[in-house]
Amino acid sequence: MAPVPSFPVKVGHIDDVQELNKAKPITVPERFVRDMADRPKLTENISTSTGIPIIDLSKLMEGDRDERFSEVMQLQTACEEWGFFQVLNHGIDLNVLENMEKVAKDFFMLPLHEKQKYPMAPGTVQGYGQAFVFSENQKLDWCNMFALGVEPPCIRNPKLWPSNPANFREILEIYSREIRELCKILLKYIAVSLGLKGDVFEEMFRVAVQAVRMNYYPPCSRPDLVLGLSPHSDGSALTVLQQGKDSSVGLQILKDQTWLPVQPIPNALVINIGDTLEVLTNGKYKSVEHRAVTHKEKDRLSIVTFYAPSYEIELGPMPELVDEKNPCRYRRYNHGEYSKHYVTNKLQGKRTLEFAKIQPNTSN
């Protein structure tokens, strides 16, 4: 396993972006200013549709034969060519989504001293603060995070589940159960799109690991200089993103070397393929780099759920997806080791996936 980093940065008053924003600074602290090559190129027409595929889950589950076939083909294209899609008619009650959004926003609006009762400890990604920060000279994201392990119960840290807002725990439990069922359904149809048995991932994953991270991006006076969240792919199998109703457009995905904005669709959820599914499909379905940008006047809230196999299982490309034309690209490894590797390295595009890749033999 990768060692726990030696130089964790504990985010305090000076690095908390909400506190910084209260002062309405004209300049951005140097710690947040990106190098020229990493700065976002913000366009006026940021809301233009990017063509990211839309999947209607009701057609997959309840449509006639032709509708189901068409939607499975659309899902295959989404996973193979985009790594991202938005899902409509997902079956989750809109009140559940609205309650989760409200309680997350209420938490971020608490006084700093209240939020700091749930600190993110060095080398972990649970609690309030900034994750993936391992050195004093590392650039910080213009974002406050609050992350919690949800399932299985052994990964929870009860001390980090806040008692304020009073209904936080209850709402998160209900929300997480609904999202978990959605992930199982989506993985069933992803398996079908690969020509596999629908229950193959559920059987393989055993008791799936589920975590949630809430991100709050305050307005920034110089959105052209900072990033809300550094470019990265996710270590999960699937990631489910809920974007706040009144939030600015912030999510961007890297396609054909261009950063494309993802325009939120009302009541839809954004789904993306994680590194784990890329490994299991031997690269047929790829995880995709994505990042968040900020806005000069609007804030943004997002709620992200990561769904992954049990830490105890061994992973590698599925034999059905390996042949002479598609040789094995990834080694077998323990998923817990990969997860440890992921959370103890800073976000750097898809570099974390090098952990699993079979390196070409250069000795000849």
UniProtKB/TrEMBL annotation:
PROSITE patterns: FE2OG_OXY (PS51471)
Domain annotation Fe2OG dioxygenase: ranges: 208-309
Keyword Metal-binding: yes
Keywords: Iron, Metal-binding, Oxidoreductase
InterPro entries: DIOX_N, IPNS-like_FE2OG_OXY, IPNS-like_sf, Oxoglu/Fe-dep_dioxygenase_dom, Plant_2OG-oxidoreductases
Family membership: Belongs to the iron/ascorbate-dependent oxidoreductase family.
PANTHER family in the cross-refs: OXOGLUTARATE/IRON-DEPENDENT DIOXYGENASE
Protein name (database record): Fe2OG dioxygenase domain-containing protein
Originating species: Hibiscus sabdariffa (roselle)
Lineage: Eukaryota, Viridiplantae, Streptophyta, Embryophyta, Tracheophyta
